[in-house]
Amino acid sequence: MKKIITTKKIATTLLIGSCVLALAACGDKSANLNPQQPASLAQGQTADSKGLTESPYQSIFQDSLFVGDSIMEGLSFHDVLKEKNVLAGAGKTAEFALEDIDELAGRNPKQIFIQLGSDDILWPTDNPEEYSLQNYTKLIGAFKEKLPQAQITILSVTPVTAEAEKQEPRYKNISDYNQGLKELAEQENVGFVDLSPIFSDGSDDLYDSDGIHFKPKYYNKLLDLLKDQVK
């Protein structure tokens, strides 16, 4: 009987030991799956008192608001600017942006930068450019009414890569659409900035994999081009 009890104790001890080792192994695996390693700061970024990264552009454009579609949304998605300085979203057109007037007025920006059109030129209507510019005119009028002291600047629609244009031929209309935006800016007495100098070297390394959207370094170039517009 004594031998049986001793054997049971040994078996129990071995079982407990196995469980402890198994738990320790699981703990190691969890640590590997969720490594708590500090990420290095991107070039030009600083860490605030809470350890969060801050773009140097955030102070320059702290009183600005960037309105647009998913391309403009990249400013906050890539943490170049804070979300409060960006009012943009995928599929946004000049018509849909009219729904954001109250939100925009509530943020009370001193400068408004607008970049819409990448989705507008794909709109299923007989003349998407004309339809878009009509809504663009309404949008600017609403901005002036709600925020009469704000400085308004229209940005040209960014080009796409040759491959993206091949897949969606309507992107060939970007140049004509940008000419329409330039004329609209003159008509409405607002600013206009041609973004083509950013792409003057013909390099595609700014683009994301779809050839339409952009990597973070594009947004640094964009804000470098625009910082003189901020008073």
UniProtKB/TrEMBL annotation:
Residues spanning the signal sequence: 1-24
Highest taxon above the source species: Bacteria
Swiss-Prot/TrEMBL keywords: Signal
Pfam families, from UniProt? Lipase_GDSL_2 (PF13472)
- Limits of the SGNH hydrolase-type esterase domain: 66-219
Q: Which named protein is this?
A: SGNH hydrolase-type esterase domain-containing protein
